[in-house]
Structures
1.
Amino acid sequence: MKYYVGIDFGGTSIKIGIVDEEGSIVVKNSFVTDPHKSGEKIVKDIIEFTQKVMDDSTLPQENILGIGIGAPGLLNPELGQLQLLANVPNLNGIFITKAVSEELNKPVFLDNDVNAMSMGELYYGSGKGKKNIIALTVGTGVGGGIIINGELYRGTTFTAGEIGHMSIDRDGKYCACGNYGCLERYVGKEGIIERFKLYQSKGIETSINKYLENGQVTPKAIAMAANDGDRISIEVLKETGEILGHAIASLVNILNPEMVIIGGGISNAGEVLMEPVRMGMIKHAYIIPAAAVEIVKAKLGNNAGIVGSASLARAKLKI
Amino acid sequence: MKYYVGIDFGGTSIKIGIVDEEGSIVVKNSFVTDPHKSGEKIVKDIIEFTQKVMDDSTLPQENILGIGIGAPGLLNPELGQLQLLANVPNLNGIFITKAVSEELNKPVFLDNDVNAMSMGELYYGSGKGKKNIIALTVGTGVGGGIIINGELYRGTTFTAGEIGHMSIDRDGKYCACGNYGCLERYVGKEGIIERFKLYQSKGIETSINKYLENGQVTPKAIAMAANDGDRISIEVLKETGEILGHAIASLVNILNPEMVIIGGGISNAGEVLMEPVRMGMIKHAYIIPAAAVEIVKAKLGNNAGIVGSASLARAKLKI
C-alpha cells in the first residue's frame, strides 16, 4: 500500500492526515500555530506536526511516498514558495516545500487549497475517471479549479481558476477586487445573506430563528431552514442556484467540460440548491455542451482539505 | 522546405493556398461551389480545386506534407466529420477528411475556422512562442479559440471557445442562442451598429456618410470614420472596447493566459479600439494575471483562413 501526507494549511489551523491509495484517511490530527511567530518557527511547527502524524500512523516510513501542502492565498507551486497569505504574513516569501522536504526526506508539493480540493475530487471524489472538470468551492468566497486532460491548469502566473471574479453583470455590485458584478458577490456568503435579509425585511414569515449560528443568519442556517421547508430560505437558495447555474452556462460555453463539481459550505444545501443550478445552466448554455456536462456535488466534504493536499503529491509523483 | 495546404471553407466560397514553414502563402486561389449540389459533388469540387492549386504550385508533391481544412459550424475534428454547416447543409454528415485524403494521398485534418485562425496566430502570427493564448474573432459574431500549453483545447464535445456566448449581463439583451447578455450581442456587428444608431438618433454630427457600405452603417464604416476623427464613431468603438475589455478581464481571471489575440473585422479599427480594450481589462482583472497578459491584434489578416487551416495540418503532424 502507498500513502501520501496531506497538509491542509488553513492559516493558523493546520490539519494533517495520511491518505491511502483509495483516498481514505488512515490517521489525522489538527494543530494550531501562532501567526505572530517568525516564518521559520511556523515552518518548524509544521515539520514537527507532520512528523508526529507520520509517527502516529506506525506505517513503515518508506511507504509514505510524498507530502502535499494546500494553502490559501498566493503562492508559486513550481518554486514551492508562499507569497501572500492574508492570515499568516510571516510566511510570505518562505520556500516551504524545500524546508519541509529537507527535514522529512520526502518530496513535497505545494498548491492553493482550491486546486488541492479539485485534484482530490478528480482522484477520489465525484470526478473519478473524468478528464475535463471545473471544480467550484462556494463558501465565503467562490474559488475554482480547472482540470484539463486530467491535469491541473494553473495558468501563466498560477492564478487561473478565479471563477468567483468572473463578472456576471458589468454594471453590477462592486467587489473588493476592483471589479463590478463578480459572481462571488451574488452567490458567496455575503450575497446570500443580503438576499435573505431583503425578503425578511418584507415581513415574510420564516423559521430561520431556529437555525441561527451565534445569533446570526448564515448560509448554513439558510440551508437548514430550507430543508425544513422555510419559504424564504428555499427562495433564496433557488435564486442563488439560478445565478450560479447561469454563470456555469458561460463556463460550459467557454470550456465545454464534462463535469462541474460544486463544493464548499453551500453545497450542503443539497437538491434545493443543485436543481436550480442545473436548470440555470441548461436554460442558458448551448445545447451540445449543456448535454455533455454533469453538475454534481463534491464528495470529499470535511476531508477535502487533507485528501486534496495529499492528491497534489500523488499527481506530481504519478505513482 | 516543407509545405502544407490550407483550405478555408467559407461555405460556398473556398479559398485554398499552399503555406511554407514560415507561414508565407506560395500560391493561392479561390473557388465557388454551388450549395445545391449533393454533398458528394461538393466534396469532389473541393478535391479538384485542391489538386489544381497543388499543380499550379509546381512544388514536388512529396514536399506537401498535409492538408488542413477550416470550416464554420459544428464538426468533429477527431472523426473529420462535418456536422452542421448553416450555409451548406448538403455537407452535413460528410466525413470530409477521409474523402479528401483518399483522393489526394495526403493526411487531412479538420477543425472549425476560429480554431484554425488561433493556430495560425500561434505558429505564424502574434502568438509565436507563446503557450497559453485566448484568440478572439470579433466580426458579425464573436468566436474564440483557446490554446493551452501550445495545443488547441477543444473541450469534451469539441465546442470549447464559445466566448461570444459568455453572459456579461444576466438580465441583458436576449441572444438567439437562448441566453441573455451574451458578449456577442454587445460587441458583435449588430451591437455596434445599434449603439451607433442610438447616438446618431440624438442628432450628433457624424461623417459616417462618407464611409457607408452599400448605403449601410457597418463596423468597417464606423472604424474608418473613427480614424477620420468622427466623434460618434470614436465613442462607439471606445465603448465597444471597454465592454470587450471587461469581458476579457473575466477570461483573464479564469484562465490567466499570457496573451489575448483579437482578430476579425473589428480589429481593423486599430488603437481607437485596442486601447480601451486594454484599459477595460486592466481596470477589472486581478492585478497579477492582468500584469501577465498582453492584448494584441491578430497578425494574419486576410490570410488568416488559409494560413490557419494549413496550421491545423502542421500541428497534427508535428513536423
Note: The domain at 3-113+303-317 of chain A is CATH 3.30.420.40 (Nucleotidyltransferase; domain 5).
2.
Amino acid sequence: MGATPYLSLDAEVMQANIDAMAEHARRYGMVLRPHAKTHKSPAVAEVQLTAGAQGLTVATIGEAEVFASVCRDLFIAYPLWVDGDASARLTSLSEAGVRLRVGCDSETSGRNLAGLPVEVLVEIDSGHHRSGVAPESAGALAQNLAGLGLTVLGVFTFPGHSYSPGSGEAAALEEAEALARAAASLREFGIEPAVISGGSTPSASFSTSVATELRPGVYVFGDAQQVELGTIQPEQVALTVVSTVVSHAGGRVICDAGSKALAADRAPWASGYGRVFGEPDARIVALSEHHATISWPGELPALGSTLRLLPNHACNAVNLADSYRLSTGELWSIPARGRNN
Amino acid sequence: MGATPYLSLDAEVMQANIDAMAEHARRYGMVLRPHAKTHKSPAVAEVQLTAGAQGLTVATIGEAEVFASVCRDLFIAYPLWVDGDASARLTSLSEAGVRLRVGCDSETSGRNLAGLPVEVLVEIDSGHHRSGVAPESAGALAQNLAGLGLTVLGVFTFPGHSYSPGSGEAAALEEAEALARAAASLREFGIEPAVISGGSTPSASFSTSVATELRPGVYVFGDAQQVELGTIQPEQVALTVVSTVVSHAGGRVICDAGSKALAADRAPWASGYGRVFGEPDARIVALSEHHATISWPGELPALGSTLRLLPNHACNAVNLADSYRLSTGELWSIPARGRNN
C-alpha cells in the first residue's frame, strides 16, 4: 500500500473483462480494436492484443506514438486537422512500420491528408451529434477524398448517445442503421467499404450486425457510469481509487480522493461523483479537488481507514495518474497520460 | 505555437492579478498565503512571493515537497491523516528548513501529529460543509491538541460556498463570523490564536476583517467560473487552452480540447463546459475527452483556426498539463501536477 489516493488495478477482473469482449467480437465475426485512450498503457494493450484484439484505436497522434511500441495497426479515430508538424509525425510513424488509419469528416480536412501514408475512414454521425457527416453524405465525401488520392477504407462512428440509462440497445440499433446507410452511400459511389467500424462499451453487447469492427474502450476496467448504466455489475469494475478517510465532519465521510484523482465527470443521471466499492448505498454527494464528501448509511468507517472508490469515468481518472498499482505491489506506468496532441 | 490543445499563460495578465491581490491583502493588513494547488508551478509561486506573498498554501505533502524549493513557510491546509510514511516525509521537509503548518479537525487525527515538527491550525466549517469542526468546538479541540504536545497556532476555514453566483459577499460575512466565533472559542480555553486564516477567490475582496491571513488560489489565473460568478472580467483571465477547430458537424464548432485538456468541471449554474475567449455568446454545450462542441453565433470560424478556451476551473485544467506556454514561446513546467499525496 502506498500513500493515498492512488489508482488500484485488479488484473484478474481486467482479464475477465478483456476475455469477455474478445469472445463477443469473435462470436459475431467482428474485428476488435479497443480504444486505448481508456488505459493509456502499453502493458494493458498487450493483454488485449494477446486475448484477440487485432489492432488498437487511439485518439491523438501522441497516443499513436506511445502505442506504436506494442502495435503496428493503429486507428486514430478522430477528425484530425493535420498541419506540417503533424504530417511529419504521421510520416515518422509510418516509416517505423505502423499501418495508420485516420478519421475524416470533411474534404477540407482531407486535403491535409493527401500524400501522407495514411488510410482514411469517413466519420459519420449515428445519433451522438458530435463530429461526423450524415450517413447519406458519406459516399459523396468518400468520392471527394478518393479524388484527392486518398485510400478510403470505409466508415466509422461513435454511438456516444449510448451513455444514458437504458439507451445501449437503442443506440446500437441507430448505429447499425446509420452504418448500413453510410456503407450503402459509399457503394453508390463505387467504393466498397472494407471497414465498417463502431462500438462503445454500453452498446457493444448489442452490436451484432452491420459493423465489421468494434472499438469499445471503458470495458477493460469498467467504472461507476457503466454500473449505473447497467452495462456491468459492481464486481466487474477492475479500477478503483484507494482513498483514506480523513474527517467525519457533519456526520459524513470525507476522504482524500477528489476531482484531481477521480476526475470531475458527473452525467446528469449519475447518483453522485462516483461510487464506493462494496457500499452500494453510500453516495459521493460533493467533490472538491482533494475531498470526496460521502453520505454514508450506518456507522462511519474509522478515520484512517481506506475506501475503494469507483470513478464515474475511468478514462479521465486514468489521465490523472502516472501508474496503476496492482495487488502484487507492481506498478504499471501510464505513459500516454496527457498525450492530448 | 505548438500542437493543440495546449495551456497558454499570459504572464502580464497574471502579474496584474497577483499584484492586485497582494495590494488587497496589504491594504487590510492581512498575510497573503496563496494556494499553490492552482498553478502547481514554483515559477508562478516566485512571482507571487516577489509581489508580497509571505508564504504558500498547499493541499498535499507532495505539493509541499515541490514548493519547498522556493518557499520555506508552507501551510498544508488539509486535515491530513499522517501514517508512518507521511511522518517521515514531514520530518524530512522540516529538516530541510521548511516551517510547516498542517490542518486538523479531530483529536484522532491530531494524535498522529504528536511529536512531529509541525504546527497545527484547527479547521472550522464556515458554511461550506466539507471538513472542519463547528466554530464553537474549536477551543475544546485546540485544548485537546495542545494536551498532545502540539502547538496550536490558530484556526482556518475555506468558504467554498462562495462558489455560487452572488454568494461571494455573503460567504465572506459568514466566514468572518465563524472565524471570530472560533477565535473566541480558543481564547475561552486560554489559547490566543496567532493565525486566523480564510479566503477564497470569490470571497477575497470582501474579506477585510477578522482574518489575519488570506489563502486564495484561482485569482492568479482566473477562469470561466470566476467570470460567470462575476469575480473578474473575461480579459482578466490569464490561462487559456488553445484549441483547433476540427469539424463543423451539425452547424456547430467542434474543437480538439475536451475534458482531458479543460477538465470536466461544470457547476450547476455554469453556462457550459467553459467559455471561448473573445466570443461571449459562444457556448460549450458538450464535452468529450477530445472534443468540445460549441454552439456558435454567426459565421463559424474556419476549420484549422485556433480558439482560446477558458476552462471552468483552472486548478483542474492545470493538473492535466505538463507545462504552460508563454507568449514568448517559453515553457514553464508544472512539477506538482499529479502530486495528490
Note: Residues 168-188 of chain A form the longest helix (21 residues).
